[in-house]
Amino acid sequence: MDDQKKNKNESGSAMIIMVVTIAVLSVIGYILGSLTSRHQESIPINMDSARAFGLAQSGVEYVGKYLEGKNFTTVANPSTMTLGTGTFGTVLSGATTSQITAAITGTTGTAARRITVRYQKKGGAIVSRGPINPMNNPNGTVVCDATTSCNTSTIHACECTRENVPASVIPDISVPGGLPAIPAGGGGCDVGNHTTATIPAGTYYCATYRIQNNSTLSLPVGGVVTIFCDNFNFENLGNFNMAGQAGNLIIVASNSVSIGMNVNFKGAIYAPGATVTMDNSSAVTGMLVGNVVSVNNHYTVTYDPTAGQNSGYGGNLAAFAAVIDWEDS
Predict the structure, then answer these.
(1) How many helices and strands, by DSSP H and E, does the chain display?
(2) Judging by DSSP bridges, how do beta strands 111-121 and 321-328 pair with one another?
(3) How far apart, in whole angstroms, are the C-alpha atoms of residue 216 and residue 69?
(4) Which of 24, 66, 269, 280 is surrounded by the most beta carbons within 10 Å?
(5) What is the chain's mean pLDDT, rounded?
């Protein structure tokens, strides 16, 4: 009798242990299944987030190209763009004549990622790391394009003038080694009074490049000329490349640039570390870049975004918008 009771008790205990074990295993199985399901659900979410970020990054380059040549203060938001199964949209804000902020949001699936980018215009008729100084109450003109021009009173807010531009945007250009001087047949490095000459296509170096009074210099048809110098001094009553293309001529100066009275120049003068002065009744067609730029009476600077572009050094003068700051959110 006792043995029967003992066997029944043991059977009951085994049953309880089995039930508890099954219950525990069921709970463990449920938890593992739940964790697996959640992990599987999180995979597409993480992938969507990464894709959304990639879409926003694509928008950074697209918006930079979209802003090329546009007036930042009046430009409209670009249309939402579709890439694959996602999109990116842009909201522009905080515009000045030379800077603008873009909030670019990439969206795909259930995820959205935003990159906030600040763009700085690089090109312009007059570009300066420091201030642009109109001197002696000048009646000057800056021509941005066929429909936009500025005068002395509006030069600091002009669409195609840039002041206090970071050195990272208009960096110095190092002088390549072993460059020849300008040959005598092209006027040499010290062009005499009343000289008429054609500079052969090429890249040259002059410690001081001086063009004296009443001289006319030309480039060969289709020829590209790059002149590196420490100091560029263009004296009064002269013409340089006026029958040629602005894209084919660039003067790269490291120390100083002085343009005298009644001078006409077509091309790029790139001197971001130099003091640049432009005197009475002179005209530049292309681009004037300096550390501090001072312009005097009755000057005219007409913007040509192609200035210096054919030289191989003109990338620093490009008109596209450069990213100078960004954050991901």
Answers:
(1) 1, 20
(2) antiparallel
(3) 32
(4) 269
(5) 84
Q: Beta strands 111-121 and 99-108: pairing type? A: antiparallel
- What pLDDT does 171 receive? 87
CA–CA distance, 136 with 314 (Å, rounded to integer): 32
Sign of CA dihedral 22, 25, 30, 33: negative
**Whole-angstrom Cα distance, residue 177 to residue 211?**
24
Measured from the Cβ of residue 327, the count of other Cβ atoms closer than 10 Å reads 9
C-alpha distances in Å from residue 240, one per residue of 147, 154, 207, 282, 326 = 26, 28, 19, 12, 42
Give the model's pLDDT for residue 65. 81
* CA-closest candidate to residue 117, choices 157, 98, 90: 90
Alpha-carbon distance 252 to 315, whole Å? 13
Nearest to 225 by CA among 246, 249, 245: 249
pLDDT of amino acid 43: 45
- How far is Cα 252 from Cα 174, in angstroms, rounded to an integer? 9
Q: Which of 18, 105, 122 is nearest to 69 (CA)?
A: 122
CA dist 137 and 115 (Å) reads: 44
Average pLDDT estimate for 8-30: 59
For 48, 58, 89, 270, the CA distances from 111, given in Å and listed in that order, are 5, 16, 14, 46
Position 84 scores a pLDDT of 86
Count of Cβ atoms closer than 10 Å to residue 138 Cβ: 21
Q: What are phi and psi of 86, to 5 degrees?
A: -125, 180
β-partners of residue 203 are 226
pLDDT tens across 204-241, in order? 999 999 999 999 999 999 999 999 999 999 999 999 99
Element housing 111 (H / E): strand 111-121
The pLDDT value given to residue 317:
58
For the chain, what is the radius of gyration of the CA atoms?
A: 34
Is the pLDDT higher at 197 or at 47?
197
Domain boundaries, the chain: 1-121, 126-317
Contact 200, 186 (CB under 8 A): yes
